[in-house]
């Protein structure tokens, strides 16, 4: 049974979500105070953290930034409908996905299951390593190195890089990437893919103004350039 730590100070919503998730096979612990979340993470070692941005004591963005280096499971943020900045910052601070409040319990359930499947998926066996000049992608261990130095990537960042690398030289649309990485259809508005690609470029030493390694093909999508890693 997977354990969900739900950091949410809206008691009515938290209890509603808790009842729904427990009816669907999860164990749920609620934490209402932001400054207690890190301690709860350490004590409980949950399988997933569902984290509201607006928490008393310490906000969810600061919590996400602090716990991400120590937590190897998924983090799902709950954000306000009109706060694009919270959504972008949450992703940049290490969240794997976000749900806009008010959160429907069945939507949360679907996102939680999708994230847990992705984190718990078995290692891929068909090819143990992909090499492009200075870039090495170790599939089984889910590790990446550039010029011999390790590049720390989140689970979704690694999945995106691997998706690009397996289809090097092919333009991949935002819709395709969204479906592969998140397992759901692109709604035309979500900026998650753009944020992930921006993060990948930074971590892989690509020029954000004139990228050469992961190029933007206007009107079509993104292109992983195999020859650019030499």
Topology, element by element:
Blueprint: E1 3-7, H1 11-23, E2 27-31, H2 37-44, E3 48-52, H3 60-67, E4 75-79, H4 84-92, E5 97-100, H5 105-120, E6 129-132, E7 135-138, E8 143-146, E9 149-150, H6 155-166, E10 171-172, H7 174-182, H8 192-203, E11 214-217, E12 221-224
Parallel strand pairs: 1-2, 1-3, 3-4, 4-5
Antiparallel strand pairs: 6-7, 7-8, 8-9, 10-12, 11-12
Helix pairs in contact: 1-5, 4-8, 6-7, 6-8
What descriptive keywords fit this protein?
230 residues; alpha/beta; Arc Repressor Mutant, subunit A; 5-stranded parallel β-sheet; 8 helices; 21% strand
Describe the structure.
The protein has 230 residues and is of the alpha/beta class. It has 2 domains: 118 residues, Response regulator (Rossmann fold); 101 residues, Winged helix-like DNA-binding domain superfamily/Winged helix DNA-binding domain (Arc Repressor Mutant, subunit A). Helices cover 38% and strands 21% of the residues. Helix 1 packs across helix 5 and helix 4 runs parallel beside helix 8.
